[in-house]
């Protein structure tokens, strides 16, 4: 198993910016916040820090800003985390990098405006998506769905003894909407898990509800759960991963559609299981029209994020003009030396 675990704690969603950091550092003894207006600088420092801890189990926090940035790194077996002040409100220590790298903060107004336009587009997309869900919800056999869920959970937890402890749920995302488009780290997350269930279905076919029931049952058994929320609708769940059970189940539909490739991986199609036969065909025209409107809103949202990203990138270039590799190396050395 790789000692690197990648996931997101932040995301650009239909309800704006979301942040799930707290559940992931709740028990970390040393939370070091890196303070500076340049996210590229903080990312460079975080990357250097990860190399110093390359023998440890590292949790790399990907950034909703795009593939060139990190939100932080958690070294859980050392109970230390290094985090961008943009996402961390409180920590045990704050390192003000402006002492070593003086910088005047750039005006964020235009970037913020374009980002809000992206959120507005995603919100419009969610309203349209709700229309799509309604079609399938009205064709669902709820009694059978409940029975199916109960049987699945019973089989999953068969012979699993309840632990006399309060389980912890780590809330995360496995991807989000960025300047690079809609991205995810699903392959990296499932690669180390042997029992993987790929949920197929449509909007409103009960995928999230099914997974929430599974997560609740595992937590009720005293088993820690990784709960990955949707980066479009932040109230919806896209993945449940339970390392103690070597188990993962996730929404494997567009825009994060995958198919089993290894032994032990299974498809669970909730459209086939829960929805009246012929629904796709019966409502084909309405579904196609609604899907087109939904995808148009999402495309607009990504477009605004890209525009914001272009301005943001120019600002970051200005911050980094006078920064050298030696400057970063020296700063990382000072950070390590200052740790309690």
TrEMBL record:
Protein name (Swiss-Prot/TrEMBL): ATPase
Domain of life: Bacteria
Record Gene3D superfamilies: P-loop containing nucleotide triphosphate hydrolases (3.40.50.300)
InterPro entries found in the cross-reference section: P-loop_NTPase (IPR027417)
């Amino acid at each position: 198993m790789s000692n690197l675990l990648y996931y997101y704690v932040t995301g650009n969603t239909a309800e704006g910016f979301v942040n799930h950091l707290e559940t992931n550092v709740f028990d970390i003894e040393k939370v070091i916040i890196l303070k500076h207006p340049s996210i590229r600088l903080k990312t460079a420092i975080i990357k250097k820090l990860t190399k110093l801890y390359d023998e440890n189990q590292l949790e790399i926090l990907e950034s909703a800003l795009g593939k060139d940035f990190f939100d932080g790194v958690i070294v859980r077996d050392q109970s230390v985390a290094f985090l961008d002040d943009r996402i961390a409100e409180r920590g045990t220590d704050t390192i003000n990098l402006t002492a070593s790298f003086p910088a005047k903060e750039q005006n964020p107004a235009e970037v913020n405006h374009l980002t809000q336009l992206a959120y507005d587009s995603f919100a419009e997309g969610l309203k349209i998506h709700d229309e799509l869900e309604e079609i399938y919800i009205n064709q669902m056999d709820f009694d059978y769905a409940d029975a199916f869920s109960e049987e699945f959970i019973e089989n999953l937890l068969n012979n699993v003894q309840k632990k006399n402890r309060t389980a912890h749920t780590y809330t995360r995302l496995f991807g989000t909407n960025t300047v690079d488009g809609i991205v995810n780290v699903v392959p990296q997350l499932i690669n180390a898990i042997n029992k993987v269930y790929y949920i197929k279905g449509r909007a409103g076919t009960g995928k999230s509800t099914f997974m929430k029931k599974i997560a609740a049952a595992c937590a009720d058994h005293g088993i820690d759960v990784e709960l990955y929320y949707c980066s479009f609708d932040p109230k919806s769940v896209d993945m449940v991963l339970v390392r103690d059970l070597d188990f993962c189940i996730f929404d494997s539909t567009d825009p994060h559609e995958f198919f089993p490739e290894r032994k032990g991986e299974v498809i669970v199609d909730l459209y086939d299981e829960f929805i009246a036969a012929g629904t796709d065909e019966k409502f084909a025209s309405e579904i196609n029209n609604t899907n087109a409107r939904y995808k148009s809103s999402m495309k607009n949202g990504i477009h605004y994020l890209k525009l914001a990203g272009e301005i943001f990138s120019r600002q970051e270039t200005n911050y980094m003009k006078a920064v050298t590799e030696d400057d970063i190396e020296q700063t990382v050395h000072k950070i390590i030396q200052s740790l309690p």
